[in-house]
Write a structure and sequence with these properties.
With about 325 residues, this protein is α/β, with parallel strands linked by helices. It contains 12 helices and 12 strands. A 6-stranded parallel sheet has the order 2-1-3-4-5-11, sandwiched between helices. The protein has a 6-stranded mixed sheet with strand order 7-6-8-9-10-12, sandwiched between helices.
Length: about 325
C-alpha cells in the first residue's frame, strides 16, 4: 500500500499589509519575515478567523495512543489558528453526550471516533443537522459517510488485520491469539477478523478487560499455559504488548508477541527482539490531518478522499525500522 503523504505548507497565508508599516516591497518582505517567524515559534501560519474545533474520542484514561492523536491535532490547530477542544470517554453514551455538548457550544467543526457507531449515530446526525462539519477519525470508516461526515481518516481495520495475518504467515506461525481489550469496539473485531482471513494457521480470540492490566496479564498467561501450541499473541494496542510480554514470561511460553500501534516502549521492544512486529497506523497523522482538513473545508470548501477513507496505515514495523523510528516515538509523535 502506498504511504499516505502529508502536505508541507498546506496553507501559508500572508500577514495583512495594514498591520505593518506601509505596503511597499519592503513592507511585503517584512510581512513574509513576520509570518516565518511566527511559524518558527509555533504560532499560526494563517490569518483566517479563530474557529473552534472539538475532538471527541472513545479513549480511556492514560492511553498513550490517544495522547499522540491529540498531540498531532493540537499542532495543526496551532498552525491553523484554531481553538482546539479535546474530550474523551470510553463509555459510548458518555461520548455521545460530549458530542451533544460540542453542538450546543456551536463549535465550527467536530472530529469524532465511532468505535461504537450505533451509540454515536444520533449525536453525529444532530451535529450535521446544525450545519457543523464532521470528520470521523480512527474508528468507524464503514459508517462515516452514511452518518454524514465529510470524510474518514485512519486505517482500514480489516486491511490492517489482513496485513498481520500475512506477516504471521511469513514468520511461519501456526496458532495465534488475538487479544481484544474493549468489547463492542467494531474496529477491534474487524482487526481480528482480518487476521483470521489471511492467516493460514488458527486464530483464537481472547476477550479481556482492558481497563485492568493485572487481569489482562492473568488472562493471557492462563491462555498460554492452557494451550502450549500458541506461538503468537497479537495485541490490539501498544500498552497491551508489554503486558503480554510479562504474561509470556510468567507462563514459560515462547510465543512471539506482536501488536497493533506504536509507542516508545514498543519501539524498544522491537529493537531488542522482545516483540516481533508492530502495525503502525500513524496516530499523530490522524489528529493532524483531521484538524487540517476541517480547516481546509471551512476556508476553501475542500474535501479529501472522494467519499473514501483517507488511509494512514497499516505499516508493518519490524526490528529493522525500530531504530529509525525511535527518535519519533521518544518525542511522542509516533
Amino acid at each position: 500500500m502506498a504511504p499516505f503523504r502529508t502536505w508541507a505548507g498546506i496553507a501559508l497565508a500572508g500577514v495583512l499589509c495594514m498591520s505593518l508599516a506601509g505596503c511597499s516591497s519592503t513592507g511585503g518582505k517584512r510581512a513574509e519575515d513576520a509570518r516565518k517567524a511566527a511559524a518558527a515559534q509555533g504560532g499560526a501560519a494563517v490569518n483566517t478567523p479563530r474557529w473552534t474545533f472539538a475532538m471527541i474520542t472513545h479513549s480511556g484514561d492514560g492511553d498513550t495512543f490517544w495522547d499522540i492523536v491529540q498531540s498531532g491535532a493540537e499542532q495543526a490547530a496551532l498552525k491553523d489558528n484554531i481553538d482546539f477542544l479535546y474530550s474523551h470517554d470510553d463509555e459510548a453514551q458518555q461520548q455521545a453526550q460530549l458530542v451533544d455538548a460540542a453542538v450546543d457550544k456551536k463549535v465550527d467543526g467536530i472530529i469524532v471516533t465511532l468505535a461504537k457507531p450505533d451509540a454515536l449515530k444520533a449525536a453525529v446526525a444532530r451535529a450535521v443537522k446544525a450545519g457543523i462539519p464532521v470528520i470521523t477519525v480512527n474508528s468507524g470508516s464503514a459508517e462515516s459517510e452514511a452518518f454524514g461526515a465529510l470524510t474518514h481518516i485512519g486505517q482500514d481495520e480489516t486491511i490492517a488485520g489482513e496485513a498481520v495475518g500475512e506477516e504471521l504467515n511469513r514468520r511461519g506461525r501456526k496458532k495465534a491469539v488475538c487479544v481484544l481489550h474493549e468489547q463492542g469496539n467494531v474496529g477491534h473485531e474487524q482487526r481480528c477478523e482480518g487476521v483470521a482471513a489471511t492467516f493460514t494457521g488458527k486464530v483464537d480470540n481472547l476477550y479481556v478487560n482492558g481497563t485492568n492490566m493485572p487481569d489482562v496479564q492473568s488472562a493471557i498467561e492462563a491462555k498460554l499455559q492452557a494451550d502450549p501450541s500458541v506461538d503468537s499473541v497479537v495485541t490490539l494496542g501498544a500498552p497491551y504488548a508489554d503486558t503480554a510480554v510479562k504474561a509470556r514470561k510468567s507462563a514459560g511460553s515462547k510465543a512471539e508477541i506482536d501488536t497493533f500501534d506504536l509507542n516508545a516502549k514498543v519501539a524498544a521492544g522491537l529493537a531488542d527482539g522482545t516483540l516481533g512486529f508492530a502495525v503502525d497506523q500513524q496516530p499523530y497523522l490522524q489528529g493532524y490531518q483531521a484538524v487540517d482538513l476541517l480547516w481546509l473545508y471551512r476556508y476553501n470548501g475542500d474535501v479529501l478522499g472522494g467519499g473514501k477513507p483517507v488511509l494512514t496505515g497499516p505499516q508493518i514495523i519490524t526490528k529493522e525500522q525500530a531504530a529509525e523510528l525511535a527518535r519519533y516515538t521518544e518525542r511522542g509523535t509516533r
